[in-house]
TrEMBL record:
InterPro entries: Anthranilate_Pribosyl_Tfrase, Glycosyl_Trfase_fam3, Glycosyl_Trfase_fam3_N_dom, Glycosyl_Trfase_fam3_N_dom_sf, Nuc_phospho_transferase. 5-phospho-alpha-D-ribose 1-diphosphate binds at residues 75, 78-79, 83, 85-88, 103-111, 115. The gene is trpD. Its EC number is 2.4.2.18. This is Anthranilate phosphoribosyltransferase. GO terms for cellular component: cytosol. It comes from the Bacteria. GO terms for molecular function: anthranilate phosphoribosyltransferase activity; magnesium ion binding. Pathway: Amino-acid biosynthesis; L-tryptophan biosynthesis; L-tryptophan from chorismate: step 2/5. Residues 11-60 form the Glycosyl transferase family 3 N-terminal domain. Homodimer. Catalyzes the transfer of the phosphoribosyl group of 5-phosphorylribose-1-pyrophosphate (PRPP) to anthranilate to yield N-(5'-phosphoribosyl)-anthranilate (PRA). Mg(2+) 2 binds at residues 220-221. GO terms for biological process: L-tryptophan biosynthetic process.
Length: 330
């Protein structure tokens, strides 16, 4: 009988590939799967294991066709701060600035309103958005890829993960298994200590340009509150680790509580107000993260230019108009 390897010891590339093939395809007892995932998480996943899990998910996902240069802006979630939907707003701003965005997301798991919940509250028909994803990406430069529609292999693992009730390697997988096969990504991760490990995994997988970011307080995006850890990956190598603050870019410092979110209706209203020109901490958070995304897209030369480009895109009404066109798209 085929069994999973010992999860208390780091797995090499072949062991990790075999293990995730078994997790997805073999008829293993649920207790064995749960024990493997928990032991690996408590030991601490390696970059090789994260990359192997991502390859296994990519091999089994339902893909979509995307234009060259398409990016994703996505966090791993689970930071517990319940902020407004920053990456969703960033996706709209960046797409309106001319960079195609394949936004990979889901409904809320640990927050009150995930990307899907907020977009739905704004008036986006998620079923129609799913059916027209390739068309809206080609015509409007944006689409929403509802994770549950593209990763059928995760369905069996879902109840096991819920029963475990704690973080496992699959909480890191969303940004690494975008159905559009993006090679440019801004990834927020809620664990600053994992930024270099995650960056190494992305380097193993191969990217054109990516950034992995984490706020010092465990925010899965660039934070206005203080310092941020940032790793930049180009091609097959980790370029550099660096620190970044909002103040360096001329943006105001705000506590995380200043962008605290609520239910989908609350978050949708805040996002719409932002796109209509409302200033304040939410706008600053979006400008900071949009700047990073525009750098990843090689659409600007540096963060300061990215902040300026994002602000102009909002102030000219381009992001708000894009959202309206997306909602009306047939």
């Amino acid at each position: 009988m085929t069994r999973l390897p010992d999860p208390t010891l780091p797995l090499d590339a072949q062991q990790a590939a075999t293990a995730f093939d078994l997790l997805f395809d073999a008829d293993l007892p649920e207790e064995e799967i749960a024990g493997f995932l928990v032991a690996m998480a408590r030991r601490g996943e390696t970059a090789t294991e994260i990359a192997a899990a991502a390859r296994a998910m990519r091999h089994r996902m339902i893909p979509v066709t995307a234009p060259a240069g398409t990016i994703d802006v996505c966090g791993t979630g689970g930071d517990g701060h319940h902020t407004l939907n920053v990456s969703t707003a960033v996706s709209l701003v960046v797409a309106a600035a001319g960079v195609p965005v394949a936004k990979h997301g889901n409904r809320a798991a640990s927050s009150k309103a995930g990307a899907a919940d907020t977009l739905e509250a704004l008036g986006l028909d998620l079923d129609r958005a799913a059916a027209t994803a390739e068309a809206t990406l080609a015509d409007l430069g944006i689409c929403f890829l509802f994770a549950q529609n593209h990763h059928p292999a995760l369905r069996r693992l879902g109840p096991i993960r819920r029963a475990i009730g704690e973080r496992t390697i699959f909480n890191l997988m969303g940004p690494l298994a975008n159905p559009a096969g993006v090679r440019r990504q801004l990834v927020g991760i809620a664990r600053p200590d994992y930024v270099p490990i995650y960056a190494e995994a992305l380097a193993e997988l191969g990217v054109d340009h990516a950034m992995i970011v984490s706020g010092d307080e465990g925010l899965d995006e660039l934070s206005l509150a203080g310092g941020n850890a940032l790793a930049e990956v180009k091609g097959g190598g980790l370029v550099a680790m660096r620190r970044l603050t909002a103040a360096e870019l001329g943006l105001s410092t705000h506590p995380v509580e200043a962008i605290r979110g609520g239910d989908p209706a609350h978050n949708a209203a805040a996002l719409r107000a932002l796109l209509q020109g409302e200033t304040g901490p939410y706008r600053d958070a979006v400008l900071l993260n949009a700047a990073a995304a525009l750098v990843v897209a090689d659409a600007v030369s540096d963060f300061r230019e990215g902040v300026e480009e994002a602000a102009e895109t909002i102030d000219r009404g381009l992001a708000n108009a894009l959202l309206n066109c997306w909602i009306a798209f047939k």
